[in-house]
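Hello forum,

I keep getting stuck at the same step: I have a sequence, I want structure tokens, and every attempt I make locally crashes halfway through. Rather than fight my setup again tonight, could one of you with a working pipeline run this one for me? It's a single chain of 234 residues.
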Amino acid sequence: MIIGYARTSSKHQEAGLEDQIDQLTKIGCEKVFSEQVSSVTQRDELDKALDFAREGDIFVVTKLDRLARSVANFLEIQKSLAEKSVNLRILDLNLDTSTPMGEMVLGVLAYVAQFERKIMLERQKVGIAKAKSEGKFRGRPKNEKLLKRMDAEIAVYDRNDPRSLTIKQIAEKLGISYVYVYRRMKQVAPEKIRHKALKRDIIENVFDGNAELYSAAQLLERKKRKYAKSVNEK
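Reply #2:
Ran it on my machine without issues. Output:
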């Protein structure tokens, strides 16, 4: 099957998206995935298209920048397709990974990506060395005010209290990542982190092997959380 993927950065580029879809349809794409999102954000339709592709399929885009945000990103996508034995075609470059010329171009791009990363790392080292020599480099800055607010939220956090904010809600309140809050909690209050037991162990040791009773208890717990959430929102 020939699979197409089309993308524009915004909803103000309807014509550009329609033109891509038209090109893909004309060259024989049997299924076309399309979306209007920036290349630096989550591209759900691209993920669906890559997941949909199967061995022997051909994955087609009109331009390289419609598919990848960088050379390194392009090579990652191409590798994931190659692992599934899916060939890639880029129309404006006349690139087809099933041909010897296509393989050669991929080799050049891989070299360019490696070279770019090497240059970036060298510049980073030079910048850090210069900052250290001038006494300006102190590593990642710590926001003491944010840490105090986070510690205060962690101090009152109680996973067994339906009225307590969840870790995710604490992160949203502070405007930071869930992972950041979780890591901080591991440092200052590891006893508050839920350590998940294996489902089969719970069924065996708590519910005497009765899986249906376990499912009923899980359902009840979800309903309790949903109700508590609705009460808190009022």
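The chain has a mean pLDDT of 81. If your local run keeps crashing, start a new thread with the error log.
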